[in-house]
Design goal:
Helices cover about 80% and strands about 5% of the residues. The protein is mainly alpha-helical. It contains three helices and two strands; from the N terminus they run ααββα. The protein has one domain. The protein has a two-stranded antiparallel ribbon. α1 packs across α2 and α2 packs across α3.
Amino acid sequence: MFVISNILLAVSHTLDIALEIYKWIVIVSALLSFVNPDPYNPVVKFLRSATEPVYRIIRKYIPTIVYNVDFAPFIVILFIIFLQRFLVPTLQQLAYQIQ
């Protein structure tokens, strides 16, 4: 059973790191939206391609643009924090209980 426990611990740590990286991608993308950068810049293309699909899903169900301010990045960051505070510790506790 210790193998499954170690796999769950590795998944939880990897998920936590991936969520943290994506949170920073969302933050940088949101900050760049204030300065209107060159859309042909490779970094801007990457940031938009990494964040727009998630924003589109949120905008589909929740009206996020209020007074010309888009709150989709804020909602994504809140969801990431929820996953980091709920899902990651749950996986870790499950792994420790399996041992």
